[in-house]
Design goal:
The chain is built from 11 helices and 10 strands. By secondary structure, the protein is of the alpha/beta class. It has 2 domains: 28-117 and 252-324, Periplasmic binding protein-like II (D-Maltodextrin-Binding Protein, domain 2); 120-251, D-Maltodextrin-Binding Protein, domain 2. Helix 2 packs across helix 9 (263-274), helix 6 packs parallel to helix 7 and helix 9 (263-274) packs across helix 11. Keywords: Receptor, Signal.
Length: 328
């Protein structure tokens, strides 16, 4: 039995090595970067994690790069300055329409959908000592940290606060930095748009008492009617502070690839990420939603990279119209 097991393991390893050696690598880059966001946020943890996974499995040099988030990632991937990146559907739609503030008027159609990531909940955090327990408790002129300039948070959360009648002073910065400012009393509120658990919030919970503020049903309805988001509940198990699920809204995230990358390369990257769900969840719990059946959350916003479309058609039974695949 022991000999048979060793033989089977050797055969499996040989088969894997054979398949790896016979991958069509024509035109593949020797290294790559994944545009993420600021340190302390989910994008950086998640993106650096899958970049390292892909680099390890495909024998390449690659890693995550700190960026300003989805809007900048769309620009970097469109121009080819980054092979890969991550974006939310709202900034993706605006970028393709030529409404990206980084390059107004430039239609960023050379950034292609690669694979579904997770939903980004919009959530509000304050120190418990502030007495802020609801959106209506936020005082006039409150100093609110909205994340890095141009991020999903910074693009949409101020508009949401305007919609809800909140008057505030707008502050920007990386999530770790904003968390420190909140703890030091330099901010009153942080408005997060990031996959949960947000590392900066988890760190705050260890150091002090915080309030994670949910939307009322009326506030939730008002926001979903005005913005490209859907209803969402942050599970109570996400943070030690929560005793029950917190009402929120969310926006889907997708990994993106420069549309000119070889189809075989992007196909291999997608296969690596989508075939190792356990390792992805170990990278970040938000990857629970990084599963093949969520391919349809693109909703026709981004053109599909041919290599990615091929993978989802063959492995997830995806019904992707040809006119939604780049180059067709």
């Amino acid at each position: 039995m022991k000999t048979a097991a060793i033989f089977a393991a050797t055969a499996l390893a040989s088969t894997a090595a054979f398949a790896e050696a016979h991958l069509d690598r024509e035109g593949w880059p020797e290294s790559f970067t994944v545009g993420t966001a600021s340190q302390g946020g989910t994008y950086f943890s998640y993106g650096s994690g899958w970049a390292n996974l892909v680099a390890d499995e495909l024998g390449l040099t690659g890693g995550g790069e700190v960026t300003g988030g989805p809007m900048q990632n769309m620009a970097l991937v469109h121009t080819g300055d980054a092979a890969f990146g991550m974006t939310t559907m709202g900034p993706a739609r605006e970028s393709i329409a030529g409404e990206n503030p980084i390059a107004p008027g430039l239609e960023m159609t050379n950034a292609c959908a690669m694979f579904p990531m997770y939903q980004t909940p919009f959530s509000v955090t304050a120190l418990a000592s502030s007495g802020i327990e609801s959106i209506s408790d936020i005082p006039e002129g409150a100093r609110i940290g909205f994340g890095p300039a141009g991020s999903t948070s910074d693009t949409y959360f101020p508009r949401m606060m305007d919609e809800l009648g909140v008057e505030y002073e707008r502050r920007n910065g990386g999530w770790s930095d904003l968390g420190g400012q909140l703890q030091d009393g330099l901010l009153d509120v942080i408005a997060f748009a990031a996959g949960v658990p947000v590392p900066a919030v988890s760190q705050l919970e260890v150091q002090t008492d915080v309030n994670i503020i949910e939307f009322t049903e009326e506030e939730q309805q008002k926001i979903t009617e005005a913005f490209p988001v859907s209803e969402f509940e942050i599970p109570a198990s996400t943070y030690t502070t929560l005793e029950e699920p917190a009402r929120s809204v969310s926006m889907w995230n997708f990994a993106i690839a420069n549309c000119d990358l070889p189809a075989s390369f992007v196909n291999a990257v997608v296969d690596t990420v989508m075939s190792d769900h356990e390792r992805m969840v170990n990278i970040h719990r938000a990857a629970t939603s990084t599963v093949p059946e969520n391919w349809d959350k693109n909703n026709g916003v981004l053109p599909w990279h041919p290599g990615a479309a091929q993978w989802f058609i063959e492995n997830a039974g995806a019904d992707i119209p040809e006119d939604q695949i780049h180059g067709n």
